[in-house]
């Protein structure tokens, strides 16, 4: 049986890949494609916009009332997330949120909405990144209190609007919780003195068309361990979001993560 999905942000780079990859998956069917009604491609066929054969689904500003939807995938901007969140609560539609750059107020509203419908929220849709979250937690717990410094370096394309990435922030939080580090430092400049043991350095690189890389460095006197993820195509994030939609369809109201999808 097919999972019928709606894609919010269908004209964006990730939205287009979701449409294209869903067309290759016999278990999925795109039944609604959403973007700003002011977008120059509003009204166009979503398949055509994504560079694949037409699928008969026009780009619209809201979900058609006639559409039968099992799950909505949001890969847009925070304002777009908040708009589709209300629709999903009103219509009790499961929602996968893959948008980054969300503020605390957005997250609070999402947590409240999870009382009404199923919501999956993750700082990254990559399956490997979510496994790396688990490995980072295990490593940080094992090395806590043993003289290790932790630095996080993330690299993304020049077009990325938020910095550091939501994924890097999540890695930092995992380390903080496990190792009780007290402070996060975003880059360093000038005479800052010796590195205190209680800080985590987070560094953001923006260059070219880098899809996304994250390196978590655990280093002590005499040895270093690095946990690394390198993304070579946006498809890894899109495929993760599509898998999440399959998982979330039919789930009861509540907050879910990619760890639930992966059984972690």
Automatic annotation (TrEMBL):
Pathway in which this enzyme or protein is active: Amino-acid biosynthesis; L-lysine biosynthesis via DAP pathway; (S)-tetrahydrodipicolinate from L-aspartate: step 4/4
Top enzyme class: oxidoreductase
Catalytic function, reaction form: (S)-2,3,4,5-tetrahydrodipicolinate + NADP(+) + H2O = (2S,4S)-4-hydroxy-2,3,4,5-tetrahydrodipicolinate + NADPH + H(+); (S)-2,3,4,5-tetrahydrodipicolinate + NAD(+) + H2O = (2S,4S)-4-hydroxy-2,3,4,5-tetrahydrodipicolinate + NADH + H(+)
Alphabetical keyword list: Amino-acid biosynthesis, Cytoplasm, Diaminopimelate biosynthesis, Lysine biosynthesis, NAD, NADP, Oxidoreductase
Gene Ontology molecular functions: 4-hydroxy-tetrahydrodipicolinate reductase; NAD binding; NADP binding; oxidoreductase activity, acting on CH or CH2 groups, NAD or NADP as acceptor
InterPro entries in the cross-refs: DapB_C, DapB_N, DapB_N_CS, DHDPR_bac, NAD(P)-bd_dom_sf
E.C. numbers: 1.17.1.8
Positions of NAD(+) binding: 9-14, 35, 98-100, 122-125
Domain of life: Bacteria
GO cellular component: cytosol
Record domain Dihydrodipicolinate reductase N-terminal: where: 4-125
Residue numbers binding (S)-2,3,4,5-tetrahydrodipicolinate: 157, 166-167
Subcellular location: Cytoplasm
Membrane-spanning segments: none
Dihydrodipicolinate reductase C-terminal domain: residues covered: 129-262
UniProt keyword annotation of NADP present: yes
UniProt GO BP: diaminopimelate biosynthetic process; lysine biosynthetic process via diaminopimelate
Active site: 156 (proton donor/acceptor), 160 (proton donor)
Assembly information from the UniProt record: Homotetramer.
Function according to Swiss-Prot or TrEMBL: Catalyzes the conversion of 4-hydroxy-tetrahydrodipicolinate (HTPA) to tetrahydrodipicolinate.
Family: Belongs to the DapB family.
Protein name, entry field: 4-hydroxy-tetrahydrodipicolinate reductase
Gene name of the encoded protein: dapB
